[in-house]
Structure formats: structure tokens, C-alpha cells
Design brief:
The protein is an alpha+beta fold and 186 residues long. It has 5 helices and 10 strands.
Amino acid sequence: MAADMDANLDSQLEIIRGLRGVIYAFYLDKDILEELRKEESTVRAMGNIEVDNRGFNEALKRESVICIVKDPRFRPPPEPTVILLSSDGEVLGEEVFPFTAKKYENRDDVVWLSDGFVLFPQIKAKGGEQFVMPPVSFPELNESNGCKDVVSCSPAPTCDLLIKKHYGITDNPKIASVLVAFNRIK
């Protein structure tokens, strides 16, 4: 497995492999990306709420997709990776991180669904709600190191498991995958 992961070593992989909390980083080939696309299209959340992984769909439009397998030391994402939208596109709730939690402390207009997610009850659900996983920025890859159109995303848990099985990585609840996709500046 390790030799396969090093087959396409380049500056982008070197940058990512140098980040704190990265256990593995490797390019995904078209075969596994197609398997992941099929699986992502079937994902539903609790209560049978639709999940639209827009970040993953954007990643598929890029020429290069790197999979990062990370542990809890990896930095948090720079913006929410999950948003609950109403059928007309209004934000009903969003992911909260320890570094963003202060903006919601002592507010009467939010409901904490968990330590990491708030709901905005003043926005009324009308049916047809969906969880959206938007494309997330990944500042470590940028024009200065030959990348453009950079997006990152979290694959669905079932896709995370597919990646681990495909590459022979032992499943462990303390590690998870993140995909980083980009086009190369020519």
C-alpha cells in the first residue's frame, strides 16, 4: 500500500503530508472516485433527510483529488462543513467549532442540537429540508504552489469506509478522510 501511495509524489502531496495530523495522503484514481460518486448519491441523514455533498460534487470536477487520512491533531476546517437548509435555501442550522462557538454563546435565538451544531428556530422549516456539505477552502494549496480552483470536503461515513477498505487502511473511529481537489496551473 505505501508504495502505491508514493507513486505520484509531487509538491502538493509533500505539502499535505507535512501538515500536523496527516497519517496518509494520496491521489484517488478514477475507479475509486466513481465508486464514491455512486455511494454519495445514496446517502441520507437521520430522519431520512437528504444529504447534498456539494463539496464532493465540486471535487469531482477537478483534475486532481487527494485523499487525506487524518487524526484529531489535524486543523479544523476554516468554515462549516455541514449546513441544514430549508427547501427555499434559508439556513436552518450550521456546524459550530470550538473557535466559532463564542458567537453563539448566551444567545436566545439558537438551539444547540449538539456541541457542534446549532439550529436557528426563527427560520421555519417548510418540508424538503436537506443537509448540505459545501465545498470548503483549503488554504495550504493555492496559486503559489501551482494550484487553482481548490476545494476540500468530507466524504460521507460510508465513503470514508470504502476508501479505507480500498487502500487497506484499518478502520478506526479516531481517523477520518478529507478530500482536497484542485486544478493545476499550467
